[in-house]
């Protein structure tokens, strides 16, 4: 989820995690993304969520490489 550290992104991530999805939460800094992912992990036992840094389209391509996308 790009913009995953904002309120809408965090809510979307939480809804997906609650349904058993594996989620990558992207932000400009890994620390900020991981902090948001950690908050979600604390609410959902067994949540499969990671925080990743994304500075632009090339980062997004790397993050998505080899992953199944659900839109």
What topology emerges from the helices and strands here?
Elements: H1 7-18, E1 22-27, H2 30-43, E2 48-53, H3 57-64
Parallel strand pairs: 1-2
| Count of alpha/pi helices | 3
User: How many distinct beta strands?
Assistant: 2
- Roughly how much helix do the residues carry, as a percent range? 40-55%
Radius of gyration: 11 Å
Please report the distance between the alpha carbons of the first and last residues: 10 Å
Spatial arrangement of strands, main beta sheet? 1-2
Q: What is the residue-averaged pLDDT? A: 87
Using the alpha-carbon principal axes, give the shape.
globular
User: What structural class results from the helix and strand content?
Assistant: alpha+beta
Poorly predicted spans: none
Strand content of the residues, in percent?
15-25%
Following the backbone from N to C, one meets helices and strands in this order, namely HEHEH
Q: Quick one: biggest sheet?
A: 2 strands, parallel
Structure description:
- With 71 residues, this protein is α+β, with helices and mostly antiparallel strands.
- 48% of the residues lie in helices and 17% in strands.
- It has three helices and two strands.
- It has helices at 7-18, 30-43, 57-64; strands spanning 22-27, 48-53.
- A two-stranded parallel sheet has the order 1-2.
- Helix 2 links the parallel strand 1 (22-27) and strand 2.
- It is globular, with a radius of gyration of 11 Å.
- The model has no long low-confidence stretch (mean pLDDT 87).
């Amino acid at each position: 989820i790009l913009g995953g550290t904002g309120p809408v992104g965090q809510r979307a991530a939480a809804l997906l995690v609650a349904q058993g999805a594996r989620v990558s939460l992207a932000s400009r800094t890994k620390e900020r993304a991981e902090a948001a992912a950690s908050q979600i992990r604390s609410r959902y036992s067994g949540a499969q969520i990671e925080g990743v840094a994304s500075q632009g389209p090339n980062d997004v391509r790397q993050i998505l490489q080899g992953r199944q996308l659900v839109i």
